[in-house]
Amino acid sequence: MKKIYFDYAATTPADPEVIKAMEPYFLEKFGNPSSPHNVGREARKALENSRETLAFFLGARPQEIVFTCSGSESNNHAILGIARSLKARGHHLILSSIEHHSVLEPALYLQQEGFKVTFVPVNEQGLVNPDDIKKAITDKTILIALIHASNEIGTLQDVSAIGKMARERGIYFHVDAVQTVGHLMVQVNDIGCHTLSLAAHKFYGPKGVGALYIRSGTPVMNYLLGGDQERGRRASTQNVAGTVGLAKASELCCARMEEEIKTQTFLRDKLITEIPKRIDQCFLNGHPRQRLPNNVHFSFASLTGEALLMSLDMVGIASSMGSACTAGSLEASHVLKALGLSDELAFGALRISIGRWTTLEEVDYFLDQLQEIVPRLRAANV
């Protein structure tokens, strides 16, 4: 049986060159980067080289990079850290209605501390209207947070326009770029953000390591306490091998990005075009063009996404309904509900996310299998 992976948005396989770069830091160069001896200094050098590489990739300065364990930690650190630092100045946050749970839940938690959160809507394609954010701003607004590209539907937001608006109003701006870094050219100064989150395993690096960009001068209260690592901004011993892998992954993405965008966009558009031709009563979620090059998301009437996933898995195809962080939830996706979808279509969702090693043959096989599976599942539901 074929084994086809169409869930790159959940996690990507580590590139062999990334694994090779990491190997020495498990056995030969295993030191704690805070140790003063030679073994520790060797690890420290690797850590700081990784920081420089990632900073260059983002158009940032090395001292503005804080290594974390994940994109979720980075989002929590930014939302909680900025809000709590600025509580004396204001207590109002603005988010979109389709943020990742690692942004939504810290914001909701802050409501218990007296903060007010405004959730601006999106249109049926998942786009935020900058005017809606502008209207939501008050004299107490201290933070705007916006996902660069939805991890579910792939829609790309005009973060640069929001960044410009935030700067003009003196409001801090956080961007969740977990799905875009490594897949699109992300430059912090072009966006104009104050903080930005990313995770290595989303772009062919290892799991368990991420980063938070913090623009110099941005007030961010510490999230992890108990040590002076990361220039006093995040306690805990750094994952040196992980940061080396993250840096190597960013280098590889930089070198291959133009060709990968071209290839993946072609495969994405083939899926977007062919699926409705082969299957009736299916609906594309997200913007048809202003979306990630590797994301396709459809809803199918008269069937459940769970049954569709299981059937695809039985023929060797791994895909998802949406966010891996909420897999198994009995509630309809808040992202799809924000688009105005019915419960039926929200529960009948399928996300196909492709990547570096996806082939045209795999896409064709998927289309053939989907064409057989959907009518069979619908017939069984009658």
Topology diagram in text:
Layout: E1 4-5, H1 16-22, H2 24-27, H3 38-58, E2 65-68, H4 71-85, E3 92-96, H5 101-111, E4 116-120, H6 130-136, E5 141-147, H7 159-169, E6 172-176, H8 188-191, E7 195-199, E8 210-214, H9 229-232, H10 240-278, E9 282-284, E10 295-300, H11 305-314, E11 317-318, H12 334-338, H13 343-347, E12 349-353, H14 360-381
Parallel strand pairs: 1-11, 3-4, 3-5, 5-6, 6-7
Antiparallel strand pairs: 2-8, 7-8, 9-10, 10-12
Helix pairs in contact: 1-10, 3-10, 4-5, 10-14, 11-14
Task: Provide a descriptive summary of the structure in words.
The chain is an alpha/beta fold. The chain has two domains: 4-12 and 257-381, Aspartate Aminotransferase, domain 1, CATH 3.90.1150; 16-252, Aspartate Aminotransferase, domain 2, CATH 3.40.640.10. Helices cover 43% and strands 14% of the residues. It contains 14 helices and twelve strands. The chain has helices at residues 16-22, 24-27, 38-58, 71-85, 101-111, 130-136, 159-169, 188-191, 229-232, 240-278, 305-314, 334-338, 343-347, 360-381; strands spanning 4-5, 65-68, 92-96, 116-120, 141-147, 172-176, 195-199, 210-214, 282-284, 295-300, 317-318, 349-353. The strands form three sheets. Strands 2-8-7-6-5-3-4 form a seven-stranded mixed sheet, sandwiched between helices. Helix 1 packs antiparallel against helix 10, helix 3 runs parallel beside helix 10 and helix 11 crosses helix 14 (360-381). The longest helix is centred in the C-terminal third of the chain and has 39 residues, at 240-278. The chain starts with a strand and ends with a helix. The relative contact order is 0.17.
